[in-house]
Amino acid sequence: MNTPHTRLIDGHPFISYSHESYPEDEMLQRSKDFYSWMNTRRTVRDFSSRPIPKEVIENILLAASTAPSGAHKQPWTFCVVSDTALKTEIRKAAEKEEQESYASRMSEEWLEDIKPLQTDWQKPFLEIAPYLIVVFKKAYDLLPDGRKRNNYYVNESVGLACGFLLTAIHHAGLVALTHTPSPMNFLTTILKRPENERPFLLIPVGYPHEETFVPKLERKSLHQFTCYY
Known about the structure:
By secondary structure, the chain is of the alpha+beta class. The chain has a single domain (41-208), classed as 3-Layer(aba) Sandwich (NADH Oxidase). Helix content is 38%, strand content 17%. It has helices at 24-38, 54-64, 84-105, 108-113, 125-128, 154-171, 185-190, 222-225; strands at 6-9, 12-15, 76-81, 131-138, 140-142, 148-150, 175-176, 197-206. A four-stranded antiparallel beta sheet has the order 3-4-8-7. Strands 1-2 form a two-stranded antiparallel ribbon. The chain has a two-stranded antiparallel sheet with strand order 5-6. A hairpin with a 2-residue loop joins strand 1 and strand 2. Helix 2 (54-64) crosses helix 6 (154-171). The chain starts with 5 loop residues before the first strand and ends with a helix.
């Protein structure tokens, strides 16, 4: 491997970068293969309690951390929960919010739209999955002296990191669910997060249960979500 060349640009260090490219026929095949593989990813609600090596989770999180972010501020914290008591506490708090949402917060249109998914306020997977990854976004950074330092494009940056995270989970042969109980402030309290962090996503991660069913859904076709100019 060649050692990267370095140079200073306006006093800031830069290193040389190259990226592997492929002949057109190989590029076409690789893009098709990747799509076909990604198209097998599904949101799963039936988890096995089978344990996962912690190092696998750590590698998944490292992959997520390679996502681009505004001004390279990396405004995210991934809280990994495997403690049984904490998972139970999170489930109880989430189900309390979900029960209220299904009963009074969600519109009739919303309830109609999620009927094909056959979900309800009960969330047993929050205790069954071996790991919960709770993603927090950092509205700003806190310096050691207590001063605040701005972050930029926080929602976009954390959203990108979550996309990388889900891809890495799929790549490891595991399944996940993006859970967004609303409001999610209980996660800040339970996990004792600092004032600059806001809960963004709650993601159970694990193996699928031996007998897992998912809704028979169709993704939009290319022409339905693409415009060429």
